[in-house]
Amino acid sequence: MEAIRKQAYKFRDQVARQQQAVFKQFGGAAYGNPDNVFADSAAYQQHQKLEKLYISTRAAKHFQRDIVRGVEGYMITGSKQFDIGNKLSEDSRKYGAENTCTSGNTLSKASLCHARARAQMENERANLSRALGTQVAEPLRAMVMGAPLEDARHLAQRYDRVRQEAEAQAIEVSKRQIKVRESAAGGDYISKLEAAEAKLQELKSNMAVLGKEAVAAMTAVEAQQQRLTLQRLIAMVELERTYHQKILQILEQLEKEMLLERQRIEASPSPAAENYMPPPPSYEEASGIFVDSTSDASTENVEFFLAEAIQSYLAETEVELNLSAGDYVVVRKISNNGWAEGECKGKAGWFPFAYIERRERVLASKVVPNL
Q1: Alpha-carbon separation of residue 13 from 125, 134, 204, 367 (angstroms)
Q2: How far apart are CA 132 and CA 346, in angstroms?
């Protein structure tokens, strides 16, 4: 409906301009002179200011609408990204919780860290989307559709209609003035001319009043548009800056956690490295019964502690102990050449110290009693 009304006003303006052009062509300067509809120069300046205000507020209204559409588009896109991010977070969490890798749980820990960080980032994205809607889109949409702007534009349109009527009446007055000059000064022509001039004066007066009201209303709307739009732009920038700062903090923390896990992987002994490990000390050496002066291996009796095997180990000699990932071991001795001695599932022996991690608490069901 608004578009149809604007088109009608535009068409009427075109007809009025064409009519004035015809009058100017065939009637000379006496017809269609725009100065005839303004009481003085102040009224003409007021008319020019109103035209500029109308153009300014229309451009600001379109800009506000563009911002609202941009924010709405961002929210729609953000909703899709939110769903994708949450799916990725859930997949990472599921792998971390259900990992069945036999060589360690480093990747599962990293995936759990990633799942947690991804969930935090998607939560921040959702918060940003809601904030943009409530703090940016809604206030601007309310102003675009609000009564102050519509009332001011209606006043301007009423002023424009009265101005067009005044222009038509000015042309009518000019025609009657010509008839009075070209014919005998009859009373009927003079009375009609006086009536036309009185009507023109009334239209000029109404136009001046409406012009002042329209200028005041449009000036207030323009100031409000400029102030509110700038405030909402600043709010949008601050919201996005805060969002990206939080995302950066989350990513930095995630990077630290994942780099630690990568260092654990790199520090873990590989199958090739196992071949170069020195053999475990004998029980005689470990007990101090016999020490070979050519060997730099020594053992240290430590307070017994529980440890969990983080990867499997296959014994190669009789003094070594088979381990499976997840086994719990009572560690009794540690050598300085990378071996530890302990008991697991009723058997004792040596195993690489790097294959275990100390545990403070262990479920009773995980520890097999020594029979």
Answers
A1: 49, 40, 19, 94
A2: 64
Least confident of 28-37, 163-172, 224-233: 28-37
Q: Given a cut of 90, is residue 130 above it in pLDDT?
A: yes
Distance CA 286, CA 348 (A): 13
Tokens 């001695």 sit on residue = 341
Question: What is residue 121's predicted lDDT score, i.e. its pLDDT?
Answer: 95
Of 245 and 362, which is predicted with more confidence?
Answer: 245
Q: 41-50, 86-95, 143-152: which has the highest mean pLDDT?
A: 86-95
Kindly tell me the sign of the dihedral angle through the C-alpha atoms of 110, 114, 117, 123: negative
Instruction: Kindly report the pTM of this predicted structure.
Output: 0.57
As a whole number of angstroms, the distance between CA 129 and CA 299 comes to 61
DSSP annotation of 145 reads T
Return the H-helix or E-strand segment holding 97.
helix 41-98
CA distance 359 to 16: 92
pLDDT at 39: 61
| Distance of alpha carbon 147 from alpha carbon 336, whole angstroms | 84
User: Helices 187-267 and 41-98 sit at what angle, rounded to 10 degrees?
Assistant: 20
Count Cβ atoms below 10 Å from residue 117 Cβ, excluding itself. 21
